[in-house]
Each structure stands twice: as structure tokens, then as C-alpha cells.
Amino acid sequence: MRPVFVVTGPSGAGKGTLIKGLVERVPGLEVAVSATTRPQRPSEADGHDYWFLSDEEFTRRIDGGEFLEWVPYVSGRRYGTLRSEIDRIAADDQVCVLELELEGALKVQEEVPGSVTIFIAADVDELERRLRERATESTGEIDERIALARQQLERAHEFRYMVRNDDIERATAALTAVVECELVRAGTMAGS
Ligand code: 5GP
To answer: What pTM value is reported for the model?
Structure first.
């Protein structure tokens, strides 16, 4: 069975950076583009980083059954995985990678056969430093994200694997090793 990789963990843990390194190292992976109602950051492109939807449009798609999973996140913003993204990636004969917060990752773990969950952990002080340095949210929202991160770090054991992002090179290598191992096990990697 073709695996679906789900990378989860607290905001600021470096999931996006690790996934970028992973996709550069392992051929045949494609990251699903999520939908969100949060505002677009200056560095982001619609349809590349996210599908940026209005509240009305997001609700319309929930009602239409278009989401595999969706969650309300900090500041009432909603995030969700579109079934059409998973179908598109499978049709391209690629292996899907999802970047999700914890509740969404647990839902996919329960519901999608072949899903492999990987929790990215980081030191809370380091998370706080990254979020404040990135400065893409207001101070209030950063505080909210850090409080949530503290609770989330206690829940690493609910997922199949844990990778500690204390050093980006080491963590990218560890994530790559997990993914390659699972691809070989599933018989979906060249040379397996
Ligand atoms: P950010 O606003 O920093 O881009 O994302 C906030 C959180 O939402 C991150 O932890 C990210 O992994 C998560 N996220 C992004 N897309 C989705 C999605 O489609 N579903 C779920 N459940 N979480 C998502």
C-alpha cells in the first residue's frame, strides 16, 4: 500500500523547513497544499503555500464534503486538507506528504490506511525564539501559539515516530531515514 506521510508538531518546530529538505532528498514525494482562512503572509503564494479561502468559501467546501480533515486553530482560523489534493498526488503517481497540526494528524492516522505520522519536537525556548524571529503573527497570537506548543509537546507519544529538531541537518537526515525506511517497507521505493 502506498504510504501517506503526515508531519506534525507545534508551530515553530521547523516542520516546513524539514519537509523542504526531505522532498529535495527523496524523489517521488509531493506535499499537499492545504486550505486556510488565515491571512496570506507576504512571502506566500496562493495555490503554492496554501489555498487562501474566505470564511464563506471554506464553509461551502466543508458542506460539500471536500475536506479529508479540517480544524479550527488559533484566532479562530481554519485549516484543512482537501481530498482533491490527495487524489491529484495519487494520480501523478507520487507519494503524498501532509503537514498538519496535531488533531488533524490524529484524524488522518485513524482514518487513512497506510498513513505514517511523524512528530517534530523542539525545545520550547527555541520554538519561542523562532516564532518571535519569524514575526509573522502578532505578539498575542505568538503567545497563544507558544501556550499551545507546550501542551502539544506532551503528546509526541501518540504518533508513530518522533524527530527532535535540535539541529536542522541532523533532523533532516533522521526524517529522511524514517521516510526511506517506510517506502522500502511499502515496496514503493526504487531499489527496494
Ligand atoms: P501556519 O499558520 O503557521 O502556516 O500553520 C499553523 C498550523 O496549521 C501548523 O501547525 C500547520 O502544520 C497546521 N496546518 C496547515 N495545514 C493544515 C491542514 O490542512 N490541516 C491541519 N489539521 N493543520 C494544518
So the answer is: 0.93
